[in-house]
Each structure stands twice: as C-alpha cells, then as structure tokens.
Amino acid sequence: MVTIKQIAELCGVSRGTVDRVLNHRGNVKPDKEKLILDMAKKLNYQPNPAGKALTARRKHPVVGVLIASEGVRFFDDVLVSMRKAARQYEAYGLKVIWRSMRGFDTKEQCALIDELRPQIDALIINPVNAPAIVKKLNKLIDEGLFVVTVNNDIESVHRHCYVGSDYMNGGRTAGALLSMIGPKSLSTAVLLGSHAMLGHRQRLEGFLSVLRNHPDFHYLGAQETEDDDMVAYECTRTLLSEHPETNSIFVISAGAYGAARAVLASNRTDITMIVFDTIPSTIEMMRRRVIQAALYQHPHQQGRKSMQVAFDYLVNGIPPERSRYLMHNEIRILENAVGGTAKID
Amino acid sequence: MVTIKQIAELCGVSRGTVDRVLNHRGNVKPDKEKLILDMAKKLNYQPNPAGKALTARRKHPVVGVLIASEGVRFFDDVLVSMRKAARQYEAYGLKVIWRSMRGFDTKEQCALIDELRPQIDALIINPVNAPAIVKKLNKLIDEGLFVVTVNNDIESVHRHCYVGSDYMNGGRTAGALLSMIGPKSLSTAVLLGSHAMLGHRQRLEGFLSVLRNHPDFHYLGAQETEDDDMVAYECTRTLLSEHPETNSIFVISAGAYGAARAVLASNRTDITMIVFDTIPSTIEMMRRRVIQAALYQHPHQQGRKSMQVAFDYLVNGIPPERSRYLMHNEIRILENAVGGTAKID
DNA sequence: TTGTACGCGTTATCAT
DNA sequence: ATGATAACGCGTACAA
Description:
Strand content of chain A: 15-25%
Number of domains of chain A: 3
Mean pLDDT of chain A: 94
Oligomer: homodimer
C-alpha cells in the first residue's frame, strides 16, 4: 500500500517527479530516476485503482461495441451481461456506444467501424473474417485503439485480447458426450454454419477426432446451414429421407431449432441430438425430448469479461492478464439448463 | 454522472448539506432535504465508486475468512479465487484475515470466530450447522457485522448473503444424467457425507425425485461416509459384495476417490459413477474410466463472488443484489473437465 | 442548521 | 529538470 507521496518523501523529491518517472514521461535526471524506480520496486508500488479511476473521468474514455448480433439469440445473453457491466462502469465515467448488425457483411462492418472510429478509445468486436476487416483493424490497433475480439477470433489481427469459446474443446466434448448418451452404433450427421468459419471447422475437427476412436461410428458428413433455421430444417429433412439410418445429429452452431423441427416433422423419436447454446428454443426442444444435450459456452461471462478487459485498460491502465480468455464448454441437459439457479455474473 | 457538487450547485446549498441528506445524517431543514432528495432522484444520482473507495481507505475495512477447508480439496479452488479477488481489493485498502480449520467441530469454530471478531468488519464463513454457531452469528450480525455464508447455508442465520451450491438442482441433474448415461435398468447406491448436512439431504432428495419416474430404478439406499475416502472405500467394498447387482453409484459429496478405488479393487468395470467436483483425484478416475461424470459447482465463482460481495459492501457501501447467489451445476466429463481452456474468474 | 476545508491517490498544468 | 498546485468525487471534522 505504498503511495506516490510516500515514495516522493523517501526519495526527497516531489510527487510530480515520481509521477513523471513512473509514467515514463521523461524530464527527470537519470540518477533520480533510478533512485525512484528502485524505491518503487523495492516497496512494490501498486497504483491505487480508486485514484486512477477518479482521474480517468477527465479523459472521458469511450468504448465502442460492434456485434453481429441481430437475429442470433446467443448474443442476447452476451449483450445482457455486457450491458450490465457497462452500466456498472459508467459510474466510473466510462461511456459505451452500441452498434449491432445482422449477418456477416464485410462492407457493412467496415462502414460501422469507420463510423465508430473517431469517437472511441476501445473497440469490442465480433469480427467478420475477411481481409478488409483484418487490414482495417490492424491499422486502428497501430494507431492506438484497444481492440477486444469476442466470440470469434482472427489470428492475423493483432488484437489485444480475445474473449470467447474454445472451439476445439467444444467439438471434442460433444463427441465424447455423444458416445456416452447416444446409441451403441452411431450414424451421425453434422450441421454447421459455414466451413468458412474457423470456429465451426475447429469444432468439427474436435468432434471427429474423438469419434474416430469409436468402435462403431458412421459419419454421414457435414451440411452447411448458414446459421439459418429454415436451411437447417431443409437439410435435416433431406438428410433423414436420404439417410434414414441416421440416429444422431450434431449441430455445431445456430440452426438447432430448425433441425429439431425437422426431426419432429419426420416422426423420428430415436435420434440423439447434441447442439450448442441453451437458448429458449433449444430448451423447448429439450422439453419435447428432441434435443438431449446442449453445450453452453458461457455467454454471460463472455459479455462481462470483454467489457471488463476494456474498462481495466482504459480506466485503470491495466492490460489484460491473458491474450485469450477461453470459456469452458459446459454440458447441459434439461434439468440443469434452466430455472432454479440465480444468475451470476 | 451527476456529482454531489453539481446537485449542491443546482439546489443552491453547500456540498456538505447534500452529503448529509444523502447519507441520512440529519441536521438539514425538511424543505431543503426534500429539494435535495428530489433533485438527486430526478438526476438519478449515483455515487462514483472511485470516490467512495478512495475515502474507504481511512476506515481500514477488514474481512475475516473462516473456512473448514483443510483436507477438502474442493475448497482449494474456492480459496484460490478468493485470494485472487482479495489481492485485487487490497489495492483499494481492504485487509483480509485468513483462518482455516479441519472438520466441523463446533467448539473450534466458535473459538475462531471469537478470535476474529474484534478485528473484522465482515466475515466470510463456511458455517457449522449447530445451535451455538447460529446463536453466535446472529448476535454478531445484530452488532453490525456483515456476514457472508459460503458453500453451505443455515436458514436460521440472518446472514446478509449466501454464495454457494444449488443442492436440490444438483441432485436432480445427477439423476437425469444417470438415466441418460447409465444402464437401462438401474440398481443404484448413494454415498453421502452425512444426513445431518442439509445440502447433502437436498441433493439426495433431488436425485430420487427424478429417478422415481424412471421405469426401472432400484434404489439400494444411501450410506454415510463422513466425507472420508477410507470410509467411502469400506462402504463401497461392502456394498459391492452384499449387492453385486449394483450397477451405478452416486457420490453426493466428498469420498469419490475412495469409492472409485473400491470399484477398481472389486474388479467391476460395469458401474456408472456420478460424483461431485472435478478435483484431481476425480479426474484421475475419469481417465481410468471408473468415474463417468462429475457435477461442477463453480468453486472459483464461489470464491470470487463471496469476496466481491464483502468488498462492495465495506468499501463501496453497496449491499448485495441478492440474498443468495446460487451456482449453476455443470456436467463435466473427461473431455471438458481439464486442460486446454484458460481459467476465467 | 449550514458552510468550509481537508484528505484520500493520481494526474495535468503552470511556474520556476 | 523540478516543484508546487489544482482538480477529480466523496466523507467528515469543524467552524460559523
């Protein structure tokens, strides 16, 4: 609990000098600088976040949030907790500008980034994986913008932090779970949003890597749904008529409701379905015993943590501890998917 | 973002007067008081936590932590995150005094509470469910001590907040899970720490309430293990020799390792085991395919949240939003129990 | 009853 | 290059 003032007294200099040294703002004689640095290290100086937060208010730090959330139920939960965190931080003087979009249109996202850019000090974004976005984000980062990617990452972007799913592990977990709760002999089809989505490919890879060791696994291929329930419905209808031997379906991203409706429409009650996210439509299908299990990727934590990372950086000057915060994949069934338990965030 | 100062200016009074009104410290003319209160409400005044934290330092708030953690691996994780949160909050001037104990001895806990009592402003405790403790805690609460119960609650204690498991739901989830991953015909034995522990009884009740609807469920009774691996081992050995038809075991609290070793020693490979907590010994037994699934009760969240509740109250003067923070029960199998994923807290 | 002034830790600015 | 000072928002002791 050493303060700048104490260090100043011990070194026989003024607070201003200590501050200049600690914030590398120069204009201090080398010997004094060394003395102060040594003293600070020796006494393990840690700035009091309360003091920092108090002064941060003058900087009027602003965070921009840009999520392709419209029509994707999963993001509702992410945003609920992101907003809750934001409300809390606004008491410290943080401002947040919210933007959303529907689908993954590169041009639209570029335009929204451009619109936000002059107003913000940090950006929380669910980036479209496209060269134009990569280029733009890297440029803004070079210019000093603090960037947090949420839910999906782009390796070639030098963002400061990623908060989101552990895709590979999600696929592995789903594979292992299916071999536990599915029939002995598995004839399994996979629905995924798009092969173009890195996360979706990784989940599929994890899934297959586990089931390759299964003694009786028959892979019926992966269909693209564009994360659309109607497409998923059609895919599944076709699948079940062309491959009536199908006894299990793994839905890698959105589209679970469409697939489940198709299973119902086909009068199949012998199919094991594993999907992602415990959104209301999925829980309804759990109630109807169509979907057996869902993998939960902690949307609330994703929202809270991403906002927290931006706050800590802008207001307290604390960079994120890790460059990636990966959510645990949790297995949920009807009994632990809903109700009873109070939300924690 | 209204400040006291701004309200004072708008009301044509001094800062001190506004402060007296807002903190109900009296000595303000009723009409002015009303004016100020109305203005504060109208402008939605929210005190800046940074300012509060800054002044809180002079009060030197102290939190006492008293957990019956020794020898219980589960609490290691709770304490890791509790310590991490404490370290963070210490930068704001919060002090924490740590005490631990082994087992649930009422006298010992009483003595430790007495020892802590004069030094602390808040207490985070894992209370023994005994009349003497109830009486003592209620007395301290009446005297103004802020009390948070962790992991197990006592209804008759008027603690300010409970952070811990949702026991009933944990039992229900385990029951439903067993009927998914277990054999068609279930002959199930239960091991629990003690019938005297409310949480353990609730888990059992939840478990049985689900399985009562199972078409082919045979309940072989519940044995007490005192949360001891050796006792659990003996129980399980006896069980398997007296009831060789046993094909599933539900371990409600500690003792999973002992039970698993007994299953191994009995050369049984056809038994489905569901337990609580993904402690290392359980994960080892998952690797050896003895334990199939564990219910995870978010020990890290329990630690972080309980410390956060105490901090918010002491330093920011914010009482907990809820009187109970119940953890979600997560289903974990080998693939999502360990590794790969970074910890979030 | 009310207002003033100081301290908390940090930062920015101005004067030396 | 360095020191002094004001400001941030809140709590409180003390003076009027």
